[in-house]
Amino acid sequence: MYLALIHHIPRLVGFILLWAGAYKLVNPGQATMALESLEMPYGLAKTIVSSSIIVELYLAVLLSLRIDLKYALTASIGLLFLFTLYLWYLSTLANPPACGCLGLTGIFNSSKHEALFGLFRNCVILWALKFSYDHHFKSSNVEEAKPA
Amino acid sequence: MPPRLRAHASILGFIVVLTFSVQATFRERYSQERQKIEAEGSRRRARELASGWNALRYTYESSEKTTEAFIAKIDWPSLQLSQFQKEKLERRLGELLDYIQNPTFEQYFRLKSEGFVYQFQLSERSEKLLCQTNSLALDVVNMSTTDLVRTLWDSVCALNETGMPPKITSVCLDQIAIVVHRAHAAAAAAILKNPKVWKGFTVVKEAIDPGFRYRVTERTATDDAKIENVFVYMSFFARSNLSRDAGPIYISLFWSERDQNWALSEMFTDILLRMKTLF
Fold first, then answer.
1. To probe the interface with B, which of A26, A51, A63, A66 has the most B CB atoms within 10 Å?
2. Across chain A, how many H-helices and E-strands are there?
3. Is B261 helix (H, G, I), strand (E, B) or coil?
4. Do A67 and B7 touch (CB under 8 A)?
5. Separation between Cα atoms, residue A56 and residue A76, nearest integer Å
6. pLDDT the model gives residue B4
7. Contact B15, A52 (CB under 8 A)
8. In a domain, A41, yes or no
């Protein structure tokens, strides 16, 4: 059961990224305005949101179809790490804007709680990706390193 | 190009085209979403502010006691005014606080006119209001100032939910701010820019000025620029009889040198208090 779950983590994370990218593609307002509220110009905020949509969808396809899994997992960890840093920064603000990711905004009354929840969620995904990476590649490396 | 790289380029290319196509198609939707978020953000921020203001301590004493307690809370020595001006201000504030707790037309008109040399000319907002209400047929030119202001008073009162003049039901005595401001020109709305009395607001509502003009001598605009006007800016939190929410009230008075008294200048209330009134 545990192994099966670990095995399917790339696909699960792929679907999460697909949902996040598609959600932002249809509703980019919150994500863009969150960046603007940090005094970023509108053009730059829009470019960053568009880029993150493209990267999310691209990685979603790679993870879901297990194309170049090692590269896809590493890039996903990098992307999630960046998002986590951003959420951590938002969670330190007294009144943070809703980041607009995953469409989960609105389930808390406080935007600070939303940011903290997002931080926790991203940490869980990061750990899941790390376990998946270890499962898929560390064990094969060890086997390769064993003398014949 | 190696097949692996070609696969990545194809996926990426497809996603870029898809993203930009969807963005081009949804442009109108994006703008609607943005407006919706802005409106929701304003509503949310207003609720946050209101909950902070509602949590303050308000007095529910009789109007006389509230007025007394209010005046006692003022840091009089900090106001850089002459003794005469302070005495006049104390009396004026007493009358004003009594009025905003139990407003009547007679009291309002007395506050605006008694002891002052003034000219009356309907302000733009007053004219607009009279046009919007029943009063198109009024013979404005031949009406006395009292009748004109009374008509305006009735029109403004009718705009309130109860059809009555709005009144202050309680005041937060812990957050009273009052400062003296000296300016060379009439400082319209400068009270809202003064950090010492600043209490924030969700949406500000300016009380309607009927059109009383106190400085009506032969002074020219150049003279006005030279003469120093003395204003008293005051702000406090209060509750009105028309709303469940508390909110800030900003009041400014100015010293009329010729009349040797404090004239009512401007009043701003937060929209949460739902007060539509003359000042």
1. A26
2. 6, 0
3. strand
4. yes
5. 8
6. 83
7. no
8. yes
For residue A148, being part of any structural domain is answered with no
ipTM > 0.90 for the complex: no
Domain ranges of chain B: 3-54, 63-273
CA-CA distance, B156 to B277, in Å (whole number)? 6
Q: Which domain holds residue A120?
A: 2-137
Cβ within 8 Å, pair B23-A29: no
Q: How far is CA B214 from CA A110, B115, B132, B270, in A?
A: 50, 11, 27, 27
Which position has the higher pLDDT, A23 or B61?
A23
DSSP secondary structure code for residue B62 in this structure = -
The radius of gyration computed from the CA coordinates of chain A, to the nearest angstrom, equals 17
Task: Let me know if residue A144 belongs to a domain.
Answer: no
- Which of A32, A54, A95 faces B16 most closely, judged by CB atoms? A54
Of B8, B26, B37, the CB nearest to A30: B37
B210-268 pLDDT tens trace:
999 886 444 555 555 566 788 999 999 999 999 999 999 999 998 998 899 999 999 99
Q: Would you state the pLDDT for residue B229?
A: 84
Window 100-119 of A: residues touching B by CB (8 A cutoff) are none
* Number of domains comprising chain A: 1
Question: Within a domain: residue A53?
Answer: yes
Per DSSP, B115 falls in state T
- Cα dihedral B63, B64, B65, B69 in deg (nearest 10): 100
- Give per-residue pLDDT as tens, A9-23: 999 999 999 999 999
CB pairs under 8 A between A and B: 44
Give the closest-approach CA distance of B232 to chain A in angstroms: 34
Q: Which of B22, B38, B48 shows the shortest C-beta gap to A25?
A: B22
